[in-house]
Amino acid sequence: MKKVLLIFACCFLFLCGCGKIELNINKVSKDLNTYTMELTYNSDHTLIGKQKLNYKNKTDTFLKKLCFHLYPKAFAEGAVNKPVSTVNINKAYPNGVDYGDVEILSANVNGQTSEFTYSGTDNNILNVTLLQELEPLDSVQVEIEYKVYVPNINHRFGYGNNTVNMANFYPVVAVFENGEFVLDPYNSNGDPFYSDCSNYDVTLTVPNTYTVASTGVQEKVTDNGEQKTYNIKANCVRDFAFVMSEKFEVAEQSVDGVKVSYYYYDDENFEESLKAGVDAVKTFNKIFGKYPYSTLSVVKSNFVHGGMEYPNLIYISDEVEGSDYLNVIVHETAHQWWYGVVGSNAFRYGWLDEGLTEYSTVLFYEENPDYGVNTEELIKNTNNSYVTFVDLYNEVLGKIDTSMNRHLDEYNTEPEYVYMAYVKGLLLFDNLRDVVGKNKFEEAIQTYYKTYAFQNVTPEHLIGIFEKVCKTELKSYINSWVEGKVVIISMN
Ligand SMILES: [Zn+2]
Asked: Is the overall model pTM greater than 0.70, yes or no?
């Protein structure tokens, strides 16, 4: 995600950028779970979903149930873990506070009706009982029918005055690791999501006044005079999302075999916006390794924060303007590499993808001087902004905790999270590049991308790759940043 914050009355812009690596999604997708979805979006802002999940037990545990996240529960009336912090309520709900929800209508396992229960603070976890224990390497088909109530809110999930944003709306199976399902709750800070790469085969029906931007490839669109039906395929992606609008215009350009589509309204500079997406794909293909998908949709939308990443689809808030707008496009495009292809638990290690994504935008501006961003100045300003934040925090609120390895619900304030994950994250990667040198840094990042494509990583994986490529011990150096021991001083 990209946040644009006003901190201490000082407007701080988070400037937060070799084609030899080729990833083969057709090969990898053969061994992944598959969601087959039939979705119908109604004009009363409800969605009826029928989904079949073919799930293979890749753990070494006998599974008695599958757990699914029900993220719309955070948007329900009375939810404890709310989708927006108090300071953002007016911005998120310009038409007044509204609520959403998801209701599970039925669950079937291998064609037989199954029991299901809710758990979690806000009933945000769905547990579907398997009729018999699922042995390691065995597969099961779980069919769920549900109804989604979409709230009027400018958020990842919700409809606004211009767009309907449909992300995190369906029951998504939780990641299983270290002997259990990972069931971290929603949080208004950061992106509280974590999921495995899967395949999606989606039939989406909507009122025919809408144009849909989505994850994956839209293979066919039919129109019966009232409704449009989109047949969409997305292999090897860790989520499925779509945004639709009655106002969308579309501009497209291909780069390195990737069709970049810009969905917009009210944008006189649409060619410039499209170009930023195209330039970002081209640049990151070159310095990290090739984007493995055939589409990327850059989507202007009603969104309370600056932008948001989903596989093959990024939200850019219509409240962001000028060079900030282009910067958000670059940031969210970089997330296709750090989140989309190389996944991580964004609830527990926010800095791992956000820090590297912010630093990717610095690398983008280095490679693209025509954007007019002096990256040395940018690093200096970022460094000094961090120092000012820490000093003021210590003075006003007491001793600041500068550790970065906290869960989203362990940060005291939203600015504290943003400074530790994004700002200090950027500085960590820049300092690491100074320590190991530009060439080794790029080699390590490319190796990290190639080695962990379509997998889930932790900070240890990143450290391991850097140590291997640079042939030196770096764990204590990186951990001194992560654990909050390093002292950052002002730059002149
Ligand atoms: Zn981000």
From this structure: yes
pLDDT in tens, 276-315: 999 999 999 999 999 999 999 999 999 999 999 999 999 9
**Cα of 284 from ligand 1 centre, angstroms:** 15
Cα–Cα distance for residue pair 346/143, rounded to 1 Å: 27
Q: Map tokens 């064609």 to a residue.
A: 111
pLDDT tens, position by position, 40-50: 999 999 999 99
Cα-to-centroid distance, 109 and ligand 1 (Å): 37
Distance 2 CA to ligand 1 centre (A): 4
Q: At what angle do helices 438-451 and 424-436 cross, to 10 degrees?
A: 120
- How many angstroms separate the alpha carbon of residue 13 from the centre of ligand 1? 14
Ion ligand 1 neighbours (CB, 5 A) are: 1-2, 354, 357
- Within a domain: 210: no
Instruction: Judge if 13 and 41 occupy the same domain.
Output: no
Lowest mean pLDDT among 12-26, 178-192, 399-413, 426-440: 12-26
Q: Which of 196, 222, 242 is the last residue of a domain?
A: 196
Task: Give 395's DSSP letter.
Answer: H
- Dist. CA 334 → ligand 1 center (Å): 8
The rounded Å distance from CA 228 to ligand 1 centre is 32
In angstroms, rounded to a whole number, what is the distance separating the alpha carbons of residues 99 and 73?
9
| Long-range contacts from 111-118, C-beta under 8 angstroms, 24+ separation | 111/141, 111/143, 114/142, 118/70
Ligand 1 centroid to Cα of residue 137, in Å, is: 35
Q: Which position has the token pair 């001194």?
A: 480
